[in-house]
């Protein structure tokens, strides 16, 4: 009987604590897939997930329409708002085109300097090296199954499989 009283007292205390605690509404977690505003205009989220294809299309159109994004000069331009031009390891963008992939065009970074920009002299310093930064993105690759019999036409049915590709997204400076 003594054990029953101790247990019931503990249960009462827990219930009181639960009643006393203020209930805070759960805050939605910030989207971990936020995309840099450097190349993207507008809202690219659909039902809480990033619409990669739409954002990539936006980036490709911006690279094509803005010649400043594809310049490959090894200089820092602090007047531009784009991070690729303000970096000590500047980069430009080129379009990675592949007919057997969806999306067909993906903007990809290319380092503008072999070395890095010295922040004191604003000149290229070859004692440091600019290297590409990669990320993996999901794409759909066209898949043509091998046929045992010889096909009459060389075409294949468009069947796509999800794949992951490494794409260069910027450059950074390393020693050596």
Automatic annotation (TrEMBL):
Pfam families: IL17. Keywords: Cytokine, Secreted, Signal. Residues 1-42 are annotated as: Disordered. InterPro entries: Cystine-knot_cytokine, IL-17_chr, IL-17_fam. It comes from the Eukaryota. GO terms for molecular function: cytokine activity. It is found in: Secreted. GO terms for biological process: inflammatory response. GO terms for cellular component: extracellular space. Belongs to the IL-17 family. This is Interleukin-17B. It comes from Denticeps clupeoides (denticle herring).
């Amino acid at each position: 009987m003594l054990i029953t009283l101790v247990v019931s007292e503990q249960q009462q205390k827990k219930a009181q604590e639960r009643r006393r605690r203020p209930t805070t509404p759960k805050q939605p977690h910030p989207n971990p897939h936020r995309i840099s505003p450097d190349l993207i205009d507008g809202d690219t989220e659909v039902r809480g997930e990033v619409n990669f294809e739409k954002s990539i299309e936006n980036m490709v159109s911006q690279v094509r329409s803005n010649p400043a994004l594809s310049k490959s000069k090894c200089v820092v331009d602090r007047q531009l708002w784009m991070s690729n031009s303000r970096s000590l390891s500047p980069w430009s963008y080129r379009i990675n085109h592949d007919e057997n992939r969806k999306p067909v065009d993906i903007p990809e970074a290319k380092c503008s300097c072999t070395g890095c920009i010295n922040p004191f002299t604003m000149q290229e310093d070859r004692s440091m090296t600019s290297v590409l930064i990669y990320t993996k993105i999901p794409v759909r690759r066209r898949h043509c199954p091998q046929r045992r019999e010889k096909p009459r036409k060389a075409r294949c049915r468009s069947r796509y499989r999800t794949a992951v590709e490494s794409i260069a997204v910027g450059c950074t400076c390393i020693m050596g």
